[in-house]
Amino acid sequence: MVTLWTYYEPVTSREVSPADYAHALELLHAGMRELDVPTPHFTDRVEQAQQLVANRDRTPALADVDRELLGDTLRSLRRVIGERCGAEQLLHGEPHPGNLLTTENGLLFIDLETCCRGPVEFDLAHAPEEVGEHYPGVDQDVLRECRLLVLAMITTWRWDRGDQFPNGRRLGREWLGRIRAAVDRNGLE
């Protein structure tokens, strides 16, 4: 069999510290800054979520009030983050814990099919909250906005009638509550 993949023997599962996670992501970002490849912008993914919210045939179970909440959140945060973020670069796109392997060679990120361009805060929004405290030079306000944006995106995907994520609808309802609470607390610009 021929493969272009490298197999990494997993290390017995151990807790990854937020500092180690941040360092691994920082190394990945440093390497990605050296690449010049055409990739979509993070706002393209936001646009896909906006289109899904607007498509009642694909999201028939999404209540109108929730559709409005998601649509407004996606639209507003896409604009605000675009205006506020500084430098942009090639990103992993979804460096959440499920895409992080613990190997004898250290921490490695996998599943690079969602690479995009944007601020590092967009990538950090997928990581556990404590990781952002260990990543140098992060704009905490942009990170907070990116976290809410990512939450709105993944919540939208849970309402796609073809979604097969385990317990997706339950999570979608829970996440709608978190978005509503954040919007009530902070408002949307």
Automatic annotation (TrEMBL):
Pfam families: APH
Taxonomic superkingdom: Bacteria
InterPro entries xref list: Aminoglycoside_PTrfase, Kinase-like_dom_sf
SUPFAM superfamilies per UniProt: Protein kinase-like (PK-like) (SSF56112)
Domain Aminoglycoside phosphotransferase: 20-127
Annotated signal sequence range: none
Protein name, UniProt field: Aminoglycoside phosphotransferase domain-containing protein
Organism this protein belongs to: Streptomyces coeruleofuscus
